[in-house]
Amino acid sequence: MSWNLKERLQKIVAAEQGTLAFAPGSRHPMALVYPNTYHVGMSNLGLHIMYEQINSRGDTACERLFLPDKKTMDEYIRTNTPLLTLENQLPLYEFPLIAFAVSFEMDYFNLLTMLKTGKVPVKAADRGEGDPLVIIGGPCATFNPEPLADFVDVCIIGEGEEVIQDFLDSYYDSQRRGLSRNELLLRLAQIEGIYVPRFYQPVYGSDGIIQCYERHLKVPDRVSRRYVKDLGRYPGQTVIITSDTEFKDMYLIEVARGCGRHCRFCMAGYCFRNPRVRSLSQIAEGVEKAKLLRAKVGLMGAAISDYPEIDKLCQMILNQGLTMSVASLRADSLTPVLVESLAASGHKTITLAPEAGSERMRKVINKQISDEHIYQAIAAAVTAGIPHVRLYIMVGLPGETTQDIEAIVEMAKNSKKHMEALGSRGTLTLSINPFIPKPFTPFQWLPMASIAEVSARLKYIQSALKPIKGIEALVEQPKEAYIQSVLARGDRRLGEVLSTAMNGGGQKGWKQALKIHKVDEDFYLYRSRNDDEVLPWHNLSMGFAPEYLLSEYRQSQAEEYTPPCVTGCKRCGVCQ
């Protein structure tokens, strides 16, 4: 055991405000693990919410654990020290329950590494009666946990606030009854929102496509996503304040959850329906806490500018003598009060997400924003004193043509001209990413655009904009996006690839692991799926009517808009 490592963890905890620590043995222990660094993990509001929910029970002590940086990980390995939790510096393998919050596909490599370094059997099949139960939750667990199925015992499908309470109640009762591991898992599988992969075994055809799943007779045909009907029942705010996050000492408050805008590329928009908002009074309680901590307020949600009382909220924050920031904005719902509040809070950049350059392409993806909306948003920002503009763009979208790529360049040029005409000398930044088809979206059946094609289009945009002063094009390297794409729509056969890649340096060992196991990534990347194909995520249900996603895909082909969710709408089937 390295005392140096324990001391480092103690210093991290000492620098925090709001840590919930309990003496070892006073409660049942549970580890909450984020498979990335402390800096990234503590920026995740969902982690704070689950940390508070678990610790609020009174019978469970939830301790956090994050991926160490390279230097620290080297010391863990050199000293043969198992990964240690923050609160009490306990070894990971000592926790009977280990829950990973998984938000990004590229963290799958880290998850396996952390199990191994934590001295927990990596494969679920290798864990016996005395070994920990490994759980995953978060967006990746919700839309397709299959690539991780060989390594986890339980997947939480949907939002965790209510599921985790039912899970822990059932787990502790099963412990008192002396149930075996398999009996426990079978009992947990009866809880709405819990998927136990071992009870659903895929059967593959000679073409590599899943023919069916062989299901245990005592588990549901499909596991339904669980979601919180009333956000007011659960606080959605920062629990632990620390300066070592993406948001520094910001106090995060969830304003809304889900999105009813129906952007056809967006997994979050489909997997977190229906759209819900918190009351202004509940948010006000969070603002009061932020004031006590003298912290900046960070408003979180899919589209903050869509919040019905956004102007009142902004004025309330500023009237308290606080400043604010927002997670996301829509160009078509910005208000002068919101923009002026951001300017008064010291914002120098306004971020918008048109996603595509042409209005035709925006119809395909159901991004209901016009060029005029963008120009109006820029004008509002410049008028308020915000000089810089950032635009999020995707390339490789379904049906994208050369003209659509040229439209990105023209949109950038026109936006910059618009800024200059208003007297702004600020920078226009384009953040450009390859489009990745995701499960439970209308594009889930489509192939990804080839890496050669996407690379050429990215290069064209960069070269076309490079000569123009005041425009910067930031491009995500396609290589990582294509690994993400394989994992996003992957099946259980990728487990052995991930395991081998982990031992070969993680992401660096990906290509070699594919070769070793003779797995063709083109099968996952470039193949069109039939609309009746059994997809890897077949065992899960987001609550949609059977034909809904297919009808949305047909709408996209016809370049037709789908209107936003409204109260009483029954269109997709979630709100029956």
From TrEMBL:
Xref: InterPro entries: CHP03960_rSAM, Elp3/MiaA/NifB-like_rSAM, Radical_SAM_N2, rSAM, rSAM_horseshoe, rSAM_sf
Pfam families: Radical_SAM, Radical_SAM_N2
Family matches, as CDD domains: Radical_SAM (cd01335)
Protein origin, superkingdom: Bacteria
Radical SAM core domain residues: 245-472
GO molecular function, one term: iron-sulfur cluster binding
Listed PANTHER family: RADICAL SAM DOMAIN PROTEIN, SLL1084 PROTEIN
Protein name: Radical SAM family uncharacterized protein
